[in-house]
Amino acid sequence: MKRAAFVLTLLVFFSLSLAQDVYRGSAIALHGDIKYPERFTQFDFVNPDAPKGGELVLAATGSYDSFNSFIAEGLTPTALGLIYDSLMYQSSDEPFTQYGLLAESIEVPADKSYVQYVLREGATWHDGVPITADDVVFSFEKQTTEGAPGIASYYADVSGVEKIDDRTVRFNFSGEPNSELPLIVGSLTIIPKHFWEDKDFTAVLTEAPLGSGAYRVGEFDMGRSITYERVPDYWAADLPVNVGQNNFDTIRYEYYQDTTVSLEAFKAGEFDFRLENVAKDWATAYEIPAKEEGRLITEAVPNNLNQGMQAFVFNTRLPKFSDPRVREALGYAFDFEWSNKNLFYDQYTRSNSFFSNSEMAATGLPEGKELEYLEKYRDQIPEEVFTTEFTLPVTDGSGNNRDNLRRAQELLTEAGWEIKDGKLTNAAGETMDFEFVLNSPTLERVVAPFVQNLERLGITVTLNTIDPGQWVERMRNFDFEMTSVRRPQSESPGNEQRNYWSSEAADTPGSGNFYGIKNPAIDGLIGDLISAPDRESLVAATKALDRVLLWNHYVIPNWYVPADRIAYWNKFGRPEDASDYGSSADFFTTWWIDEEKAAALVQGQ
């Protein structure tokens, strides 16, 4: 009896140990605590009593010609993601925490070898068909095998997906333990198998797709406008993650060919809300009677978001930009201080990191865990990484940039380029000339002074402004020499970094590695970042990656502003508490139409 009792005790202990080695819950955080309890009723950043109704009209630039957002062909309409649900929903007041949406529960073992989801009973597509594990398996397999290259890269460590039963699906993982993978899978867009299975997934789609989200595609005029209609019987309307959100009955986007036209349309009252990205327009364009009368509101709303990097980007696949000394030299020709004073009304801060405005930006000299990561690649990265704090060229803002241009000339000479007959020329007799391609006329006044300084170095630059659709297509095929790109970043960088900087992505058309970066040290640091076991390690690995990117001079950093500059017609109600990591650009998920304000606005016109 004693032996039996002892064995039974061991079995109970062993069962409890196994149970403790598997996390099961309705939410999951990458690192740290989960803010909201198991049975929470709403997020803190919403108004649970927000009224539903009304139409929101917004603007988009360019055009669209397809509803297939999963491939590298065609242009899809703005905000198409409104029609789809994912397995989990990411809260915007935590760095990276997800709560159940399509999935009612999530299971992850301690060794991070898989993630398993149980789907909610009652989850349906807009046509009433239940959402099942077959849809989840189909979604993953279609998107990773026939979708855009970046999707396969993003889910590269998912070795397979299997249906356990109609409501249970498991994703198996390979490689080193990766704490982010369960959350990455949780963000997978789930699509209906019965809608897509008889269609060519690699082709553009011209009919409205079927979804499961809070909105569905309503009327549309291909390339000109699109309306999203709130689904009255949306299956997830009362889930805690949706309470107080999705308040507009319709959200309509009108397309304009450029931002100048759309700005004038906004001031004429043709749409409701505008996120302003042009410093000159923010400083001067909104001083109209409607603002003085309180009918038009402008606000600079501070945020704590990782600003990433906006920069002039080299295509380093080209021999002329393959030498980092050449890239560094051209950076001395950009006079940020003069531009900020004369073009930007002193609104901007210089971008000095690929993770600007965040704790992940590299500063000073590396130390601690960051230094440990870097030491592994010491023989593959510039020695300055260890000895010199990275700084950008600075001027007095007067426009006299002689010292910086002199330093640029020294670097170019070291790299084998000299002035001959007024042209910067290398030993092979090739001159330094290139096209700077832009996707908006508003950038021309910004780039022109930079081009003038380059000309003083003997470089010939052709400015070419093309429409956004053409620009996207050229970027997909890396068909450019220099351009301007903003690379946003999340609060918890992870697998997407492969798509931005890895050697594999450099050779994959449609990836985000526009720069052409092929650097084994950067490949290694991306792996370190992805496999970071805790937040402290993630920050250290990201700082190390940032430092190596900076010292290779792949871009000429531009600027950022740690705020959302928004303008809107005074017809909205909004929650009192804003989300810590959300953006005012996402306002339409939590704002609503205030009927009294809307009526007063109409009367005042």
Characterization of this structure:
With 605 residues, the chain is an alpha+beta fold. The protein has three domains: 20-43 and 66-196, D-Maltodextrin-Binding Protein, domain 2 (3-Layer(aba) Sandwich), CATH 3.40.190.10; 215-304 and 563-604, D-Maltodextrin-Binding Protein, domain 2, CATH 3.40.190.10; 309-413 and 466-560, Dipeptide-binding Protein, domain 3, CATH 3.10.105.10. The chain is 29% helix and 21% strand. A five-stranded antiparallel β-sheet has the order 1-6-7-9-8. A five-stranded mixed β-sheet has the order 20-19-21-15-22. The chain has a four-stranded mixed β-sheet with strand order 3-12-11-10. A hairpin with a 3-residue loop joins β10 and β11. α9 (324-331) runs antiparallel to α13 (402-414), α11 crosses α19 and α18 (520-530) runs antiparallel to α19. It is globular.
